[in-house]
Design brief:
This protein is α/β, with parallel strands linked by helices. The chain has two domains: 145 residues, 2-Layer Sandwich (Nucleotidyltransferase, domain 5); 183 residues, Nucleotidyltransferase, domain 5 (2-Layer Sandwich), CATH 3.30.420.40. Helices cover 37% and strands 19% of the residues. β4 and β5 form a beta hairpin. The structure holds adenosine monophosphate. Adenosine monophosphate binds next to α10 and α12.
Length: 396
């Protein structure tokens, strides 16, 4: 079956058409600058990328252009839209309403809308994308796959904040966690790759990308994760601060004459390794800066790795042990220096690094030595494939 996977942002939209039987990508690309002017990037498997400037006043025109490209006579991946058997949509926030993926219906969309408050930038964009697809492909079954769903198995002790309980009851203020599709995919794949029984396993997944989060997974179920009500909590990220003393907000607001929105903007967009280094949020630039003697780039890398190691340590406590650790996403898959530094903090667990294996980039590989007490591996994430699998499971 062919599944169109859609990841809709407020002014952009990523897509992949995947053959679920062979799990191969038939075509992929993105629409950018929706509502501004519009640019379509389209790539059929095996061919070069094509970029077309085309007006996209709304997501509907953007999706129409994607569908046109998919059936284009010369470079289309399919002959007609009848070959799209299902659509899988990424949805950022499912609140407490969705502990798993769900077939898209009017009632289901209403429930997603009720979570909009929790992700005011993302959920409305996801819903716009879903409605645009529905109007263009009214008879194709669609599934919503939530970033938060995998973490719904967290126990209360992990998801409650130390705040007045009424905030949880009245406003649903609690920890939700994100990147769930990736944590689910990578934890399952790690167990498979290492020949472990997932139903009897203690796994820690470090999803280290521009946004970064860690999860503790026991017997295949998430028991804790580092992001919270929003993706701002937890690790130091590309541009997000991660955990800070909340009193800093008032202190900085007064010093810099900022309102709450101004402070939030700093914490989300001007902090993390970008804010620390003053140079870049990209680890390739930070590593280059560090090698040229830039102390702030070096400090940014150290702060990032130390925070990752501290979270792993706390999750070893949450799991009362650990069998295996996976590194994934842009930094986890590619930045050997980060993996080496993080693993350096974990020697007390009997972890030892295979320095040769750690030189690898972006491939599935064990990077701990054969005698390491805890297995450590790089497992490339594939959120689109995970969404495709979830979609097939629900529409078949
Ligand atoms: P993601 O959000 O998973 O796409 O990850 C993007 C981030 O991965 C970038 O901002 C970089 O910090 C990092 N990254 C990507 N490629 C490399 C690489 N070859 N070496 C080091 N870091 C990388």
């Amino acid at each position: 079956m062919n599944v169109l996977v859609i990841n809709c942002g407020s002014s952009s939209l990523k897509y992949q058409l995947i053959n679920s039987d062979t799990e191969t990508v038939l075509a992929k690309g993105l629409c950018e600058r929706i509502g501004i002017d519009g640019r379509l990037v389209y790539q059929k498997a095996g061919l070069d990328k094509e970029t077309t400037e085309a007006p996209m006043p709304t997501h509907k025109e953007a999706i129409q252009l994607v569908l046109d490209a998919l059936v284009n006579e010369k470079t289309g991946a399919i002959k007609s839209l009848a070959e799209v058997d299902a659509v899988g949509h990424r949805i950022v926030h499912g609140g407490e309403k969705f502990a798993s993926s769900a077939v898209i219906t009017d009632d289901m969309l209403k429930a997603v809308e009720e979570c909009n408050d929790l992700a005011p930038l993302h959920n409305p964009a996801n819903i716009i994308g879903i409605n645009a697809c529905k109007s263009l492909m009214p008879n194709v079954p669609m599934v919503g796959v939530f970033d938060t769903a995998f973490h719904q198995t967290m126990p209360k002790k992990a998801f409650l904040y130390g705040l007045p309980y009424e905030y949880y009851e009245n406003y649903k203020v609690r920890r939700y966690g994100f990147h769930g599709t990736s944590h689910s995919f990578v934890s399952k794949r790690l167990a498979e790759f290492l020949g472990m029984d997932i139903n009897n396993s203690k796994i820690i997944v470090a999803h280290l990308g521009n946004g970064a989060s860690i999860s503790a997974v026991k017997d295949g179920k998430c028991v804790d994760t580092s992001m919270g009500l929003t993706p701002l909590e937890g690790l130091v990220m590309g541009t997000r601060s991660g955990d800070i003393d909340p009193a800093i907000m008032e202190y900085v607001a007064k010093k810099e004459n900022l309102d709450i929105a101004g402070v939030m903007n700093v914490l989300n967009k001007k902090s993390g390794v970008q804010g620390l280094s003053g140079k870049s949020s990209d680890f390739r630039d930070l590593e280059a800066g560090m090698n040229e003697g830039d102390d702030r780039c070096a400090a940014a890398i150290e702060v990032f790795c130390y925070r990752v190691a501290k979270y792993i340590g706390s999750y070893v406590a949450a799991l009362n042990g650990v069998d295996a650790i996976a590194f994934t996403a842009g930094i986890g898959e590619n930045a050997g220096i980060v993996r080496e530094k993080v693993m350096g903090y974990l020697e007390y667990l009997g972890i030892s690094l295979d320095k040769e294996a750690n030189k690898s980039h972006g491939e599935e590989i064990v990077i701990s030595t054969p005698d390491s007490k805890v297995k450590v591996a790089v497992i490339p994430t594939n959120e689109e494939l995970a969404i495709c699998r979830e979609t097939v499971a629900l529409v078949k």
